[in-house]
Write a structure and sequence with these properties.
Largest sheet: 6 strands, antiparallel
Radius of gyration: 14 Å
Number of strands: 8
Strand order of the largest sheet: 1-2-4-3-5-8
Structural class: alpha+beta
Oligomer: single chain
Length: about 140
């Protein structure tokens, strides 16, 4: 069975997980992520849920890790070509699923917003999945 998410490592050494589709986003957000992990998603449109694992339960992400995780949220969204885009982020404990909501759709109890560009801020180990599948 294929992994339900992609995994990257930020410049600061934090693990970043990215969902592949709506069903995998739900699995990643509600089954794999821990309450203190950080959750990110592009603000204006659909896209992948991004989780930054937080085993030490830090209250904030390092600035570089936040930028890289936000860039992944933009890259794996419909706004990939949109330049700098708003990305919401919060800890997973503030993300809820409404009863009957479709896969991948969530509600945020609280969040902050940052801007990110997938052209500048991707993690150092990033490889475009589209390029990996082409020989």
């Amino acid at each position: 069975m294929a992994e339900s998410y992609r995994s990257y490592t930020s410049s600061d050494g934090w693990t970043i997980l990215v969902g592949k589709n709506a069903r995998d986003n739900d699995l990643l957000t509600f089954k794999i992520a821990k309450p203190h992990d950080f959750w990110l998603h592009i603000a204006p449109t659909s896209g992948s849920h991004v989780i930054v694992q937080n085993p030490d339960q830090c209250s904030r992400l390092p600035k570089t890790t936040l930028k890289e995780a936000a860039a992944l949220a933009v890259f794996f969204s419909r706004s990939r070509e949109g330049g700098r885009v708003d990305v919401h982020y919060t800890q997973r404990q503030y993300v809820q699923k409404a009863r009957g909501a479709p896969a991948g759709q969530v509600q945020l109890l609280q969040f902050e917003t940052t801007k990110a560009s997938p052209l500048r801020d991707l993690p150092p180990d990033f490889k475009d999945p589209a390029e990996e599948s082409n020989p």
